[in-house]
Amino acid sequence: MEVMEGVPPVINLTEVARTEKEEFEKKVSELIIEFGAENLLACMQCGACASICPLARVGFEWYNKKLIKAILIGMKEELLDDSTPWACVACNRCTEICPRQVSPFEVMFAMRRLMVEELAISTLAIEGDRSLYEHGHAVYMTGREARKKVGLPEKPPTTDSDEKALQELRTILKNTKLAELGLIPME
After folding, report:
1. Residue 64 — φ and ψ, nearest 5°?
2. Of 129, 140, 141, 120, whose CA–CA distance to 169 is shortest?
């Protein structure tokens, strides 16, 4: 049997996997900071953000405070397997109440960016992307009949009612990774 020069006869994949996991765990917080959560390390886990977070109130397991803790200790698999960052409604209450200006809202969005990079995209995000492409809104707007009853146009004066703006948005979306990944139509 011929041994290649400079290559060990056995490669311990367990050791390689452990090393890669350790490297990722060291970098989770660094990646989140790179993706926009500059003040992440200022979090002192006081829980102010959790006290007003709609996600915590309705029972999502990884609401802002717990998500930040998981990032700080490098819980990659748990983070990538959870849809909470995609459920964040961007109310920004957490940022307003945070005594350390951590901006948990930005942490949620940075976590979304990391999940996309790791291709861990929640079905919540996929539905929102498709709605954004179809209607110009990530959350499908309802209440058209109610709008008519009170004398408002059926569609609000947004992308949904402006065909030119909607086409521009679709053109932009077609040139993103969303289209490459098949998350929006390529027409």
Report:
1. -45, -50
2. 129
Distances, alpha carbon 155 to alpha carbons 64, 139, 142, 159, in Å: 33, 14, 9, 9
* CA atoms of 102 and 95, how far apart (whole Å): 7
Question: How far apart (Å, rounded) are the C-alpha atoms in residues 173 and 138?
Answer: 12
Q: Assess contact for 135 and 141: CB atoms under 8 A.
A: yes
Q: Rounded to two decimals, what is the model's pTM?
A: 0.63
Rounded to the nearest integer, the mean pLDDT of the chain is 81
The domain boundary, picked from 120, 140, 167, lies at 120
How long is the chain?
187
Q: Do 75 and 128 fall within a single domain?
A: no
Which residue from 102, 94, 114, 105 is spatially nearest to 32, judged by alpha carbons?
114
Report yes or no: 166 and 159 within 8 Å, Cβ to Cβ.
Answer: yes
Question: What pLDDT does residue 88 have?
Answer: 85
Same domain membership, residue 87 and residue 35: yes
pLDDT tens digits, residue range 104-145?
A: 989 989 998 888 888 788 877 788 788 888 888 876 667 788
- In the numeric block, the tokens 């919540």 are attached to 124
Between residues 40 and 186, which one has the greater pLDDT? Answer: 40
